[in-house]
Write a sequence for this structure.
């Protein structure tokens, strides 16, 4: 006879994740790759996308509501799979749910960039809200106090990625409009030093990575936080003795707050595998 304890039960709960929409699926993909045996409950707050243009008060309120929905379904750990929400709402979430480990994507992205940059000259691109809050810059300086950082909002990259427009001359032209001032500044007496590392500080931007590479050239290291976040989640699960012990296949369940057909269509692009509309539950927060 197998005795199931309460601790076993918690270990076999899903990891909860949320994002403003489908962007966090780039993080889900990395989690699945690293820990294929963990179940995942994913919530995309598609009714209120984008978060990146909202005030920090609004983003925090949305993040608390999304988390409440996940906690209601029972989760063992929360991944804030959205840079904008990670930048503003991590502490309020930890305060509201002291019994649940909470991992954001900013800290792992900052760690990866500090490891990747030789010169300590790091550029961050993200949504307007993430750049305004300077969370990446704080996280980078906490690890590498001598680092030189700059932040630039690239709001148009979000709808381009959602549309699946991620390559070609038109897209590279838009990318150049944002990134040339950083990587190809006009020369003059005040010409800034060119960063050797670019952080994709938004869940949507990895889809544009190869077009970004074509624009900025081969010498700049491009960092996205998905893989390092998966590493951080695994470490946190180990620390709390929360790795899944149940046998059999892990399950991924999707929830969206609006437009399930669009979630499944664009979500497939971000996840790299199709999502059937029947696999997505419409929820209200
Ligand atoms: N998921 C958001 C982020 O990573 C981008 C989309 C949005 O603005 O909501 O910042």
């Amino acid at each position: 006879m197998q005795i199931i304890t309460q601790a076993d039960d918690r270990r076999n709960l899903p990891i909860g994740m949320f994002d403003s929409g489908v962007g966090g699926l780039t993080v889900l993909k990395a989690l699945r790759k690293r820990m294929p045996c963990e179940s995942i409950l994913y919530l995309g707050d598609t009714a209120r996308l984008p978060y990146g243009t909202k005030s920090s008060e609004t983003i925090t309120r949305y993040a608390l509501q999304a988390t409440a929905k996940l906690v209601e379904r029972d989760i063992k750990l929360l991944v804030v799979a959205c840079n904008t929400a990670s930048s503003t709402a991590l502490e309020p979430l930890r305060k509201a749910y002291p019994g649940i480990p909470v991992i954001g994507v900013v800290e792992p992205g900052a760690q990866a960039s500090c490891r990747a940059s030789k010169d300590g000259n790091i550029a961050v691109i993200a949504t307007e809200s993430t750049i305004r809050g300077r969370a990446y810059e704080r996280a980078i300086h906490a690890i590498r106090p001598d680092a030189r950082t700059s932040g630039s909002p690239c709001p148009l990259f979000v709808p381009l990625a959602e549309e699946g427009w991620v390559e070609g001359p038109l897209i590279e032209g838009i990318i150049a409009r944002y990134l040339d001032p950083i990587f190809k500044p006009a020369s003059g007496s005040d010409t800034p030093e060119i960063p050797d590392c670019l952080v994709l500080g938004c869940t949507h931007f990895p889809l544009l990575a190869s077009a970004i590479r074509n624009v900025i050239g081969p010498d700049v290291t491009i960092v996205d936080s998905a893989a390092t976040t998966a590493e951080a989640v695994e470490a946190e699960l180990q620390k709390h003795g929360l790795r899944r012990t149940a046998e059999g296949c892990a399950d991924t369940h999707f929830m969206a707050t609006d437009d399930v057909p669009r979630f499944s269509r664009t979500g497939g692009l971000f996840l790299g595998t199709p999502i059937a509309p029947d696999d997505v539950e419409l929820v209200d927060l």
About this structure: The chain has a mean pLDDT of 93.
